Amino acid sequence: MTSAPIAAVTGAEGFIGSHLTEALVAAGHRVRAMVQYNSFSSYGWLETLPADVLDHVEVVLGDVRDNGSVRSLVADAETVYHLAALIAIPYSYQAPHSYVDTNVTGTLNVLEAVRHLEVPRLVHTSTSETYGTAQTVPITEDHPINTQSPYAASKAGGDRLADSYHASFGTPVVTLRPFNTFGPRQSMRAVIPTVIGQVAAGYHTITLGDLRPTRDFTFVKDTAQAFLAVGTAPAATVEGRTFNAGTGGEISVGDLVRLIGKVMDTDLDVTEDEQRVRPAASEVMRLVADASRLRAATGWAPAHDLEQGLAHTVEFFRDPANLARYKTGVYNI
């Protein structure tokens, strides 16, 4: 009997990474999950997964900024899913060097390890923020790259490295570019958990930044399936290519707040907090995906609409044990 294939995941302790780990196990993989080293030996959200899932997960402490950590992680893996990144846009204004170290140099380390250890498939994670404010809609993968924050620039740098390694060395890399993923376990740095968390904590006046930008929100379980789709598709259909993952729908932050109020059966007032507003030239005003390339290559399509995903997210945050993990009364950057 052959053993299950090994899927290595960087950033496995995080929001999307933990959901991807669950999805990989459900699909029959063993998962080698890299968690950023910390002196608390915390495994992040992986600690909340059911025991029958964790039976198929090997957790390793490491850091994508360290070559040795990465090489140990990817050895003997059939597929590497590279999700580890610094992600908060406001913090990238304060600590841009950290974003380059993790999102650019860390990606370089993953590419080098995959190349030299001859791993059959690498799925590299991009972000819709690399497009900047939409110049044409919906946004296809051919849309110009316009990085309006240090975070976006660092992610675009990793994307360009991934492209160059495929062109230069034939590295079997595919890039997935998720639009705004949301759902259970997301941090309070994002708008949906910020609103739901404040309401669940008893606030009726919600503190936010700019209400005008529009986003294409994708439920996290659908994003996890998009990763699986590109990680398991035939090489000829995906390698060396970039794929958007989004719903094709958009909603403004203001309308989103009203929809969350409806789902939570609560009337909400909103006040603007100046510290939550991005610099004017850095704010991305409109993002909406064209995911037809991904659909054509793999058959992927989202299984949840926005209201369904919000209902699942509300259920998560209304659990007192989950809500207790968050600081709802402060601005989380």
From TrEMBL:
In this chain, the stretch annotated as Disordered covers 133-155
Q: What is this protein called?
A: UDP-glucose 4-epimerase
InterPro entries to which the protein is assigned, alphabetical: Arna-like_SDR_e, NAD(P)-bd_dom, NAD(P)-bd_dom_sf
Indicate the segments forming the NAD(P)-binding domain, all copies.
Answer: 9-312
One matching Pfam family: GDP_Man_Dehyd
